[in-house]
Amino acid sequence: MSSAQPKPRRARLIAINPDKPQARPSDWEGVRGLITQLYVDEDRTLKETMTIMSREHGHNATAKMYKYRIQRWGLDKNIKQPEAWEILRLKAEREAVSWYHVCGFPLLSYLRLAPIDSI
């Protein structure tokens, strides 16, 4: 009986321009506000955000690095399926209630700190 040795994994090569220094983990907190402004507040695409950050601020990182940080910081723009079901459930629940206002204020539901009515 011979024990099968697992094959060593090859490192995945990423095309990186050696002329541009890549972003280090310590660099991300310093540019978080800029990324939030461009990607969320100005509603730019990831590609646009990456281009602006590289050209104007010297922050060079791969799309995978950006996606990881965006997800980690909770800046992702897409509504996830469980969130969509929750929105539908809350709206149906609200429509079932005969009174829509309590004390003169509309009933509001929130998702990621944004009112559901605005989504």
Automatic annotation (TrEMBL):
<protein>
    <recommendedName>
        <fullName>Clr5 domain-containing protein</fullName>
    </recommendedName>
</protein>
<feature type="domain" description="Clr5">
    <location>
        <begin position="25"/>
        <end position="77"/>
    </location>
</feature>
<dbReference type="InterPro" id="IPR025676">
    <property type="entry name" value="Clr5_dom"/>
</dbReference>
<dbReference type="Pfam" id="PF14420">
    <property type="entry name" value="Clr5"/>
</dbReference>
<feature type="region of interest" description="Disordered">
    <location>
        <begin position="1"/>
        <end position="27"/>
    </location>
</feature>
